[in-house]
Amino acid sequence: MAGLPTPNWLTEIHQDAGSAFSLQTVKLLAEVQSPFQLVQVFETTDWGNFMIIDGCTMVSTRDNFLYHEMMTHPALFGHANPQHVAIIGGGDCGTLREVLRHPDIKSVTQIDIDEQVTIMARQYFPELCESNDDPRATLLFDDGIQWMKDVAPESLDIIIVDSTDPIGPGEGLFNRAFYQSCLAALKPGGVLVQQSESPLLHVDLLCQMRQAMSDAGFGALQTLQFPQPIYPSGWWSCTHAVKGTEFAEPRWQDAQNRPFDSLYYSEQTHQGAMALPPYLLKAFAAE
Amino acid sequence: MAGLPTPNWLTEIHQDAGSAFSLQTVKLLAEVQSPFQLVQVFETTDWGNFMIIDGCTMVSTRDNFLYHEMMTHPALFGHANPQHVAIIGGGDCGTLREVLRHPDIKSVTQIDIDEQVTIMARQYFPELCESNDDPRATLLFDDGIQWMKDVAPESLDIIIVDSTDPIGPGEGLFNRAFYQSCLAALKPGGVLVQQSESPLLHVDLLCQMRQAMSDAGFGALQTLQFPQPIYPSGWWSCTHAVKGTEFAEPRWQDAQNRPFDSLYYSEQTHQGAMALPPYLLKAFAAE
């Protein structure tokens, strides 16, 4: 063991955790400073292409299926009849693709602040963008916080917040004011889904998010866990919040008979993701 | 993002995966070259103490509960009446401690080649060693492969192989000859448990291990997944192999009423760990 050789290695240091993760690169494929952020894509030796925004790990070809499948299918099969979906962030379009695998979905609106991310995703992650031209999809490049304030009340079944971390540009997506906009935009029984960081490293943040969701008026919460190797600790989560007093029973039969292939998602891994470790349940019980 | 600053960072490069993981250190606490290997313990900024053997990540104070609980409790609750257990490797004694939490266990024999690991674990991971002096425990420092050849036939209920990777000193623990010794040592219905690397990075190895277990005569296999942040990809697995035609139904009621606290393990996370992603099931089906 030693410090990393700097050439050909890209390292993200997780300052608050005293850890770091690195991928070995072959070359820089593209680098664009947009009005919002620096977007870079590298070719790696073993993880396919790798997108970084302002130095933060976003997505790799090799392991994004974990995140994208688990940010979408549990929420969609957890709702009785989802038809209208909004995605805040999600500019790589992988979440959009997964949502559109569900044949009963009627509309998906994706609102990412930065078109540059999608432009580069189309070029370097074309498989994630294969549903961008689906007639049910609308891609907007705009401020998601404002969009959520303005959208028609009770017009959405599912809102998926697929954003950067709560520090920096994504910060406004992790507070009570934003959650109140989401609550107003959801139909009764509607579900908000948000990536909620590492179950090992970010327990305090997770508890704060959940508290803010409750304070905004969501009636029940469910955090799910799944692997995500390129993110801090390799272990990630999303949190579901329902407009109502409790979640519907997931449509397990539909999940089992899903009319699409998935790599990580199944009705079993969905149930597995809902099984939280005792230490986390204890932290949530103290909320 | 950049190459890591070398001072105060310890990095393990996963050559076969093009990735690396680093922890920020405060200082080296101890370093001993034993007759078998170089054993080092560092104090880290956020992960407690951290043991490295021949440059390979072994155990941290912060996250070892994931590995130790999941290497033990699913197998023990998955057996109808486990009484006699052997641990091959496991010199940090964390696996031993978890096994001894089960009140019906009558004997546990731990066989690690290198006493130096246990000497340093006692000093720097005392919580893992708190059951070393349990009258049911026997700690041997010897060759586990030979021990398994020599042990009385049908004398064990559970064998836990808590070893280093299949490259290097641990290599002889991942082949058919060793598995045949294990099979002979197990009573009917007995279970072999072995750490089986990353479900993302080491699928080929996992399939080879499973094939070798089948070839040795084990009648059914079950791979379980769980998070393990300091190991490659942060996602790890163990594989159970049963002497018999099928696994017993786990003792879910006993798991639920377990007379000890656990941080990650519960009957729900046990079930969750058994839920494997479709891509892995497909790889196993092609075995």
From TrEMBL, chains A, B:
GO terms for cellular component: cytosol. It comes from Echinimonas agarilytica. Keywords: Polyamine biosynthesis, Spermidine biosynthesis, Transferase. Its EC number is 2.5.1.16. Belongs to the spermidine/spermine synthase family. GO terms for molecular function: spermidine synthase activity. It is an enzyme of class 2 (transferase). The active site is at residue 162. Pathway: Amine and polyamine biosynthesis; spermidine biosynthesis; spermidine from putrescine: step 1/1. PANTHER family: SPERMIDINE SYNTHASE, SPERMIDINE/SPERMINE SYNTHASE. It catalyses: S-adenosyl 3-(methylsulfanyl)propylamine + putrescine = S-methyl-5'-thioadenosine + spermidine + H(+). GO terms for biological process: spermidine biosynthetic process. Residues 7-243 form the PABS domain. It comes from the Bacteria. Homodimer or homotetramer. S-methyl-5'-thioadenosine binds at residues 37, 112, 143-144, 169. Signal peptide: none annotated. This is Polyamine aminopropyltransferase. Catalyzes the irreversible transfer of a propylamine group from the amino donor S-adenosylmethioninamine (decarboxy-AdoMet) to putrescine (1,4-diaminobutane) to yield spermidine. Spermidine binds at residues 68, 92, 162-165.
